[in-house]
Amino acid sequence: MDYGAKKFGPANLQTKSILVLEGRRYDFQKALSDIAGWDIEPHRGKYREAMRQVRRWLIDHAHAPNIGLAAIEGKYDAFQEWHYERELANGAAEKDIKLYPTITVINSMHEWKEAGEPTEITPPAAVP
Predict the structure, then answer these.
(1) pLDDT exceeding 70 applies to what percent of the chain?
(2) Separation CA 2–CA 60 (nearest Å)
(3) How far is residue 6 from each of residues 12, 16, 36, 55, measured CA to CA in Å?
(4) What are φ and ψ of residue 48, in 5° steps?
(5) Full DSSP string of 37-99
(6) What is the gyration radius of the CA atoms in the chain, in angstroms?
(7) Residue pLDDT, tens place only, 33-76
(8) Sequence-separated (6 or more) residues with CB below 8 Å from residue 86
(9) What is the helix (H) or strand (E) element at residue 21, kind and residue range?
(10) Which residues, in sequence order, are CB contacts of 22 under 8 Å at separation 6+?
(11) Separation between Cα atoms, residue 36 and residue 38, nearest integer Å
(12) For residue 67, what are the CA distances in angstroms to 28, 73, 77, 91?
């Protein structure tokens, strides 16, 4: 969709910049020769490498603040711990938490940010 927006959309979208992440370098060539020339970065199945690639891309293309990767990783780790503990406290099984869809995790990230990036969960209210 992004490629179509860039290629066929209004003029303001023709300068659109697109980052594609792949597990191993050149995997994309097996199926998508149309995206040759894009920013395609391998993450080798490692989320920290994906974070590194996205951070660099956001700084270069979206003029995001140049926040160090260690700071980003620290916040991500703090979120993960908070999210995991909150979900366990709400009755989720460890296996289920690991399989949550991306949108569920993103929504939880928004909740964490809105709550001031807490480091501890607030226990659920007792049911009368």
Answers:
(1) 75
(2) 18
(3) 9, 6, 15, 22
(4) -70, -35
(5) TSEEEE-TT-HHHHHHHHHHHHHHHH------HHHHHHHHHHHHHHHHHHHHHTT--HHHHHT
(6) 19
(7) 555 555 566 777 788 888 888 898 899 888 899 999 999 999 99
(8) 108, 121
(9) strand 19-22
(10) 28, 40, 41, 42, 43
(11) 6
(12) 29, 10, 16, 35
The whole-angstrom separation of Cα 85 and Cα 80 is 8
CA distances to 60, 66, 76 from 63, in Å: 6, 8, 21
Its pTM stands at: 0.64
Predicted pLDDT of residue 23: 66
| Amino acid at residue number 101 | P
Asked whether 89 and 123 are in contact (CB, 8 A), the reply is yes
- Who contacts 27 (Cβ-Cβ below 8 Å, separation ≥6)? 42
